[in-house]
Write a structure and sequence with these properties.
Number of strands: 6
Number of helices: 2
Strand order of the largest sheet: 1-5-2-4-3-6
Shape: elongated
Largest sheet: 6 strands, mixed, barrel
Distance between the termini: 56 Å
Structural class: alpha/beta
Strand content: 15-25%
Oligomer: single chain
Order of helices and strands: HEEHEEEE
Helix content: 10-25%
Length: 152
């Protein structure tokens, strides 16, 4: 009896073109990363010998850096190609690239959109540095924040 009922239902589905499987649309969210956050100023004491030039070549001298909303990321988080081997090492599987817009959460005053424009010294891992001017609001350095890439 059940066998015949099954055949009857299948026949009706074929006749009325009803899908046998229902497709489910899943919402995908971007991968999130937990990083330790600090901030820095573009001065020689906190950068290399050219503090007004970021790792991707952006010139900063004489500019108010607060409105730019640039960050430096540790080298393990920045995707590099064979052309970066000399300076940064080869890291083709990292999640971010220079110029990417990222969303920062759980950082308080620094929440929102930022652009990856600089990299940090190779001794740092899983870290993000906010570029700010010398006179800026207080921030808990070393605080763990959440970062993900903004999808265009």
């Amino acid at each position: 009896m059940i066998k015949y009922l099954f055949l009857y239902v299948m026949t009706l589905m074929i006749l009325f073109h009803m899908p046998v499987e229902k497709k489910i649309n899943y919402i995908t969210y971007p991968k999130q990363y937990k990083l330790s956050a600090t901030y820095y100023n573009n001065v020689k004491a906190q950068c290399d010998s050219s503090p007004h030039i970021t790792a991707n070549g952006t010139y900063l001298k004489g500019r108010n850096v607060n409105h730019l909303r640039y960050v430096a990321m540790s080298r393990d988080m920045i995707k590099t190609t064979k052309y970066h081997i000399k300076d940064m090492g080869y890291n083709p599987n990292a999640p971010f690239e220079f110029g990417d817009t990222i969303i920062v959460k759980n950082s308080g005053v620094f929440d929102g959109e930022w652009r990856v424009m600089d990299c940090m010294n190779k001794r740092f891992k899983k870290r993000l540095d906010f570029l700010v001017s010398n006179h800026y609001i207080r921030f808990d350095s070393g605080k763990e924040i959440t970062v993900f890439k903004k999808e265009n």
